């Protein structure tokens, strides 16, 4: 994933959060948590893909 794709994903994620009229501090926490969750999901996806590739190479 290149830098532009990462930025687009971050903006898309924030727009989906529907922050509306929340306080800036609350918006920061919501955005941070959403980013953290997506980063963990991406890491798990990458790990699974790597494990799948390793499993195919061993057969």
Mean pLDDT over the full residue set: 86
The biggest sheet amounts to: none
What are the secondary-structure elements, in order, as H or E? HH
Number of strands: 0
Q: How much helical structure, as a percent, in the residues?
A: over 70%
Q: What structural class do helix, strand and pairing data support?
A: mainly alpha
- Number of helical stretches of at least 4 residues: 2
- For the record, the count of structural domains works out to 1
Give the termini separation: 29 Å
Spans where pLDDT lies below 50 across 5 or more residues: none
Shape summary? elongated
How would you explain this protein's 3D organization?
- By secondary structure, this protein is mainly α.
- The chain has one domain.
- 83% of the residues lie in helices and 0% in strands.
- The two termini are 29 Å apart.
Index terms:
59 residues, elongated
Question: What's this, in brief?
Answer:
With 59 residues, this protein is mostly helical. It contains two helices and no strands.
